[in-house]
Write a structure and sequence with these properties.
Number of helices: 4
Strand content: under 5%
Structural class: mainly alpha
Helix content: over 70%
Radius of gyration: 43 Å
Oligomer: single chain
Shape: elongated
Number of strands: 0
């Protein structure tokens, strides 16, 4: 296996412009770079957690832990892929529903406002009244003494 990889690297370096060199560069370099460029921070965190789980299982159970890890890893990766796609689909459906709800609320608000304006414009207006001010009644202020009225005081 090592000899095949070494031969591929030598061919890639020695003959970069030939058909074999271009094909090896496409397969070994360009496709790998495209796939690595597509890794998101969420996927990186998932794969790091998956690697940590594998190391923990190996540390706790040694060879049996690696067997257990190798059994559940493919299903876990498929589950994560389905969850990832389903999450994006759910977000898209939720955004469409919220957009439709917002449009319906805006249309309903416009209809209510239009009905109010129509009702106000059709309502009969009261006759105009005179705007003359009426005199206020005079206020009587007792500016006399501050002491209480002696007639009201009871002697004990």
């Amino acid at each position: 296996m090592v000899t095949i990889v070494a031969l591929a690297v030598v061919l890639l370096v020695a003959f970069p412009t030939t058909g074999i060199g271009r094909r090896l560069r496409e397969v070994l370099v360009d496709q790998t770079a495209r796939r690595l460029n597509g890794i998101t921070p969420g996927r990186f965190a998932f794969y790091a957690a998956l690697g940590a789980a594998g190391l923990i299982l190996f540390g706790l159970f040694e060879a049996e832990g690696l067997r257990l890890f190798s059994l559940f890893t493919p299903e876990l990766i498929l589950w994560f892929g389905m969850f990832d796609v389903a999450l994006f689909l759910d977000i898209f459906i939720l955004a469409a529903a919220l957009g439709a709800t917002a449009r319906f609320r805006a249309i309903g608000g416009a209809l209510v406002q239009g009905a109010r304006q129509l009702r106000v414009s059709l309502r009969p207006r009261p006759a105009s009244r005179s705007r003359a001010t009426k005199p206020r009644p005079a206020r009587i202020d007792k500016a006399g003494s501050i002491e209480p009225d002696p007639g009201r005081m009871a002697f004990a």
